[in-house]
Protein backbone atom coordinates (compact mmCIF):
# COMPACT_ATOMS: atom_id res chain seq x y z
CA UNK A 1 0.00 0.00 0.00
CA UNK A 2 1.23 3.49 -0.82
CA UNK A 3 2.24 5.91 1.90
CA UNK A 4 1.18 9.53 1.90
CA UNK A 5 2.34 12.72 3.49
CA UNK A 6 0.40 15.96 3.85
CA UNK A 7 0.66 18.34 0.91
CA UNK A 8 1.24 21.81 2.44
CA UNK A 9 0.29 23.51 -0.85
CA UNK A 10 -3.02 21.64 -0.91
CA UNK A 11 -3.82 22.59 2.68
CA UNK A 12 -2.96 26.24 1.99
CA UNK A 13 -5.14 26.31 -1.14
CA UNK A 14 -8.06 24.73 0.73
CA UNK A 15 -7.76 27.32 3.51
CA UNK A 16 -7.66 30.12 0.94
CA UNK A 17 -10.77 28.76 -0.79
CA UNK A 18 -12.61 28.60 2.53
CA UNK A 19 -11.58 32.15 3.41
CA UNK A 20 -12.68 33.36 -0.05
CA UNK A 21 -16.01 31.51 0.30
CA UNK A 22 -15.24 29.42 -2.77
CA UNK A 23 -16.92 26.23 -1.60
CA UNK A 24 -19.95 24.02 -2.10
CA UNK A 25 -21.62 22.85 1.09
CA UNK A 26 -24.02 20.27 -0.32
CA UNK A 27 -22.93 18.05 -3.20
CA UNK A 28 -22.78 14.39 -4.12
CA UNK A 29 -19.04 13.76 -4.20
CA UNK A 30 -19.49 10.68 -6.36
CA UNK A 31 -21.04 12.92 -9.01
CA UNK A 32 -18.80 16.00 -8.75
CA UNK A 33 -15.36 14.67 -7.93
CA UNK A 34 -12.96 15.13 -10.84
CA UNK A 35 -12.67 12.19 -13.20
CA UNK A 36 -9.49 11.40 -15.16
CA UNK A 37 -10.73 13.44 -18.11
CA UNK A 38 -11.35 16.44 -15.83
CA UNK A 39 -7.86 16.14 -14.38
CA UNK A 40 -6.31 15.91 -17.85
CA UNK A 41 -8.27 18.94 -19.09
CA UNK A 42 -7.16 20.97 -16.08
CA UNK A 43 -3.55 19.88 -16.52
CA UNK A 44 -3.56 20.98 -20.18
CA UNK A 45 -4.30 24.56 -19.12
CA UNK A 46 -2.45 24.83 -15.79
CA UNK A 47 1.05 24.14 -14.48
CA UNK A 48 1.74 21.24 -12.15
CA UNK A 49 1.96 23.61 -9.17
CA UNK A 50 -1.68 24.62 -9.68
CA UNK A 51 -2.78 21.01 -10.13
CA UNK A 52 -0.96 19.92 -6.96
CA UNK A 53 -2.86 22.44 -4.85
CA UNK A 54 -6.11 20.50 -5.26
CA UNK A 55 -4.81 17.47 -3.34
CA UNK A 56 -4.24 17.03 0.40
CA UNK A 57 -1.80 14.14 0.03
CA UNK A 58 1.51 13.45 -1.67
CA UNK A 59 2.40 9.87 -2.53
CA UNK A 60 5.72 9.06 -0.89
CA UNK A 61 8.30 8.02 -3.49
CA UNK A 62 6.29 9.11 -6.54
CA UNK A 63 7.93 11.57 -8.90
CA UNK A 64 6.86 15.19 -8.86
CA UNK A 65 4.88 16.35 -11.87
CA UNK A 66 3.10 13.02 -12.30
CA UNK A 67 -0.55 12.38 -11.51
CA UNK A 68 0.50 9.50 -9.26
CA UNK A 69 2.22 11.95 -6.93
CA UNK A 70 -1.03 13.59 -5.82
CA UNK A 71 -3.84 12.00 -3.78
CA UNK A 72 -6.92 12.98 -1.81
CA UNK A 73 -8.56 15.52 -4.10
CA UNK A 74 -10.99 17.79 -2.26
CA UNK A 75 -12.48 20.02 -4.96
CA UNK A 76 -13.59 20.26 -8.56
CA UNK A 77 -10.70 22.52 -9.75
CA UNK A 78 -12.91 25.56 -9.14
CA UNK A 79 -14.26 25.21 -5.62
CA UNK A 80 -13.71 23.18 -2.49
CA UNK A 81 -16.51 20.70 -1.73
CA UNK A 82 -17.48 19.85 1.82
CA UNK A 83 -18.30 16.35 0.58
CA UNK A 84 -14.75 16.17 -0.84
CA UNK A 85 -13.24 16.93 2.55
CA UNK A 86 -15.48 14.32 4.15
CA UNK A 87 -14.32 11.79 1.54
CA UNK A 88 -10.69 12.66 2.30
CA UNK A 89 -11.25 12.19 6.04
CA UNK A 90 -12.99 8.88 5.44
CA UNK A 91 -10.48 7.45 2.95
CA UNK A 92 -7.44 8.56 4.93
CA UNK A 93 -8.95 7.15 8.12
CA UNK A 94 -9.90 3.89 6.44
CA UNK A 95 -6.35 3.32 5.19
CA UNK A 96 -4.67 4.76 8.32
CA UNK A 97 -3.00 7.77 6.75
CA UNK A 98 -3.33 9.71 10.00
CA UNK A 99 -1.59 12.95 8.97
CA UNK A 100 -3.79 13.37 5.89
CA UNK A 101 -6.88 12.40 7.91
CA UNK A 102 -6.13 15.08 10.50
CA UNK A 103 -5.39 17.74 7.88
CA UNK A 104 -8.71 17.02 6.15
CA UNK A 105 -10.54 16.97 9.49
CA UNK A 106 -9.04 20.34 10.48
CA UNK A 107 -10.12 21.83 7.15
CA UNK A 108 -13.62 20.43 7.59
CA UNK A 109 -13.83 22.02 11.04
CA UNK A 110 -12.58 25.34 9.62
CA UNK A 111 -15.20 25.20 6.86
CA UNK A 112 -17.99 24.38 9.30
CA UNK A 113 -16.94 27.17 11.67
CA UNK A 114 -16.77 29.63 8.77
CA UNK A 115 -20.23 28.72 7.55
CA UNK A 116 -21.76 28.73 11.02
CA UNK A 117 -22.46 25.00 11.22
CA UNK A 118 -22.70 24.16 14.91
CA UNK A 119 -22.11 20.69 16.30
CA UNK A 120 -25.25 18.94 17.53
CA UNK A 121 -25.30 17.77 21.11
Overall description:
- There is one protein chain.
- The protein is of the alpha+beta class and 121 residues long.
- 51% of the residues lie in helices and 13% in strands.
- It has six helices and five strands; from the N terminus they run βαβαααβββαα.
- It has helices at 8-19, 29-32, 36-45, 48-52, 82-94, 98-115; strands spanning 4-6, 23-24, 55-59, 70-73, 80-81.
- Helix 1 runs parallel beside helix 6 (98-115) and helix 5 (82-94) runs antiparallel to helix 6.
- The longest helix has 18 residues, at 98-115.
- It starts with a strand and ends in a 6-residue tail after the last helix.
Describe this structure in a few short sentences:
The protein is an alpha+beta fold and 121 residues long. The chain has six helices and five strands; from the N terminus they run E-H-E-H-H-H-E-E-E-H-H. The strands form two sheets. The chain has a three-stranded antiparallel sheet. Strands 2-5 form a two-stranded parallel sheet.
